[in-house]
Amino acid sequence: MTGPVDAVLFDLDDTLCAYERSADDILAVAFERVGVDPFFDAEEYIERLGEFSEAGSGDDIRDTRRAAFGTFATEAGHDQAVGEEIADIYTDERDQTNVAFLDGAERALDALAETYRIGMVTNGDPWMQSQKLAGLGIEDRFEVIVHGGHDAPYKPDPEPFRIALEELGVEAERAVHVGNSLASDVTGAHAAGLRSVWLADGETADPEPEPHHVVESLHDLADEPWG
Q1: Which among 39, 43, 61, 200 counts the fewest CB atoms within 10 Å?
Q2: Which parts of 51-102 fold into alpha helices (H)?
Q3: For the chain, give me the number of helices (H) and strands (E)?
Q4: Per-residue pLDDT tens over the stretch 135-184
Q5: 3 state DSSP class of 140
């Protein structure tokens, strides 16, 4: 895809920022406090979270997490209450503002905002994601923010991208989406008709689906690879 670009949409988690404490670190604390051996990890938590939240329902992530961890507990032979206690500890331990920019992210935002309309399409509820943006000091940098799983179905469904572009008044063929996930960001952008920019961050395997543009860091994004 070629042609002029009017808008750049960003993913948030592991694209613009990352937690200072990993999910596995916090889970380790929670399992230790409850006094049980770990029976799931952060990868399973993230991969299966969508099973416990009706797309577009506006469910609170804290309630969804309790439902997920309670199910993981029963699957592992524990009482549901054990999983729910782990979820509550996780919520207490997770400071949503304790995030840091990925290398080059702030520079890329500053550079692109001078030329393009800037929006965000992120999977995650507003309660959680707004705290991250506040922690980074960029809560006012986006003209539109669409939360997959709350305002629309989760990415890679094309609907959250379409909502963002409709609010910006920009056609899909004149927009790009930047994200680190092939499964949700690249696939979703293509489904909605946008050009994709994949943050590879050291991954060397042949990407599938193949993004339109690949950057190794967000420093490269300031050079506008679609230009």
Answers
A1: 43
A2: 61-75, 80-93
A3: 8, 8
A4: 999 999 999 999 998 889 889 999 999 999 999 999 999 999 999 999 99
A5: coil
